[in-house]
């Protein structure tokens, strides 16, 4: 879990809140506020990892993310 937070921190995302088992990350991007919601689990299922990756591609290019998720 911390690995995922560290990846998005490198791109300027910061934790803004946590509700239950989900952490909300935000940064100010070119289009305004960019928000990601990440489940706070010790281990993430493969499908959940894919969902996080897909969610992040709204704000970050796949080429920037690829090595962090497929490295």
Structure description:
It is a single chain. With 71 residues, the chain is α+β, with helices and mostly antiparallel strands. The chain has one domain (2-70): 2-Layer Sandwich (Metal Transport, Frataxin, Chain A). It contains three helices and three strands. The chain has helices at 2-10, 46-56, 62-70, and strands at residues 14-19, 22-29, 32-39. It has a three-stranded antiparallel sheet. A hairpin with a 2-residue loop joins strand 1 (14-19) and strand 2. It is globular and about 30 Å long. It starts with a helix and ends with a helix.
Q: Keywords, please?
A:
single chain, 71 residues, alpha+beta, Metal Transport, Frataxin, Chain A, 31% strand, globular
Record the SSE blueprint:
Blueprint: H1 2-10, E1 14-19, E2 22-29, E3 32-39, H2 46-56, H3 62-70
Antiparallel strand pairs: 1-2, 2-3
